Amino acid sequence: MQENFDKFDKATANFVPLSPVSFLNRAEALHGQRTAVIYGDLHRSWAEMATRTRAVAAGLRAQGIGRGDTVSVLCPNIPELFELHFALPMTGAVINTLNTRLEPETIAYILDHADTKVVIVDRELIPLLSQAFELLGRTIPVIEITDPAAAQTATLGGPDYETLLAHGETDAGAGWPQDEWDAIALNYTSGTSGRPKGVVYHHRGAYLMALGTVAAWQMPHYPVYLSVVPMFHCNGWGHPWVIAMLGGTMVFTRTPAPDLILNAIRTHGVTHFGAAPIVLQMLAEAETGDSARFDPPIRVLTAGAPPPPSVLEKTRAMGFDVMQVYGLTETYGHISKCLWQEGWDALAPGQQAELQAQQGIALPMVEAVSVIDTATGQPVERDGATQGEIGIRGNTVMKGYYKDPEATAKSFDKGWFWSGDAAVVHPDGYMQIRDRLKDVIISGGENISSVEIEAVLYRHPAVQAAAVVAMPHEKWGETPCAFIELRPETEATVEEIISFCRAHLAGFKAPKAVVFQELPKTSTGKIQKFALRDAAKTMVL
Questions:
Q1: Which reactions is this enzyme annotated as catalysing (predicted)?
Q2: Distance (Å, whole) CA 244 – CA 221
């Protein structure tokens, strides 16, 4: 009878909050002498990694950091950022990794909106942080990372990161959250509707994301993983926690330059990495015809935009086994994958690459990824033609948007998280994105808000009306193209407009092309972006 099954209570013996912090404990206990970190001449074992991480956590507690505090980190992919993905959760704090490519204005906004208590900053990025503080109108306590591989020319007078270790190691059993629903990370979107939104992750989701990645990627123990995906992108797609679970090795190059990546792969025997399609393209272009094919193949995940088939062909020939995955900041990263099917083996390389560019099927830790007819609420036909919106349901969907209950409720309408992406489903069940419902431009793996660029353009005295859409780009996949209607009796040049945008935006957000014309509008004066998108599709840079 049901009441007999309901008599059991949760106990510490049979119910432990899920948290990726446990993966570090596992790595220390099982793989303590194996190499955890390689960065130039620096090598650290998992035992050393665990000792340092717990000491950093103790040092942060001594600084007053505790449960629910946001700590922002402005830092490239280096060992310290890897440590902080465990040290900050151990304190109960929330890690907020800042996009190092953002302009000071957006960084200032995030620091304020996130209620940041401390900023941990790589000294090479202190000038950027200083500009953000100036725009913010106040400073926030900082802890400074001194990396010998970087050009450190500035300081804000904050304590050095290494001084955190002086407080000694915390107990190995410490660090579990009070509740697995506790926040572990706060990641900001790319501002697809103007200002970026703060996406809150919980410990349970981060733990399950790591497990799901291992299953979906069929990862063995002891992978040698090259840290290419920026950790400010969904905490590096959760891969720092994955590598601890498997007792693997994280290899760092600080900057994702093609020559450094290729050298690291060959020098350290890299087996896995993740990268945006633009990185794969740069690697294909950097590799010479005389270079030996990687054998065994390097396992690669790519996401951010559908990779061009030509890039997939080239990287496959290089010995990269590339699998495309799809996800969003709101879903901890990838939640679907284009799993290779045996029937594709006999196809021509071009056909294989076309199929590899699909968004595929749900990962194991996701309850449902469905393309839904928003009018009927039902899944679309598997005909490869009927479009719907991608809806997602599972434990790796965010808690919600930080301090934005209205946006949270809207995104969770009718029991789904709505992606904003329009897609079709093929007869084999694989989904494929056809268009974006949001006006997002994905350039080199970075999401760019057309609304944000338009807001800057409207600040130019000669601009009467402006609309920004995506245009094809051979290298970056897509780049922003600005269509501008000038005010009567004013003039402006393409160079002037682009320069104006660069003065107010991060370089990668500035339009790469500008077209002056009267903008098509509806009878109510709304700009018809669909017409501009069609025009931009014929333009290639």
A1: 3-(methylsulfanyl)propanoate + ATP + CoA = 3-(methylsulfanyl)propanoyl-CoA + AMP + diphosphate
A2: 10
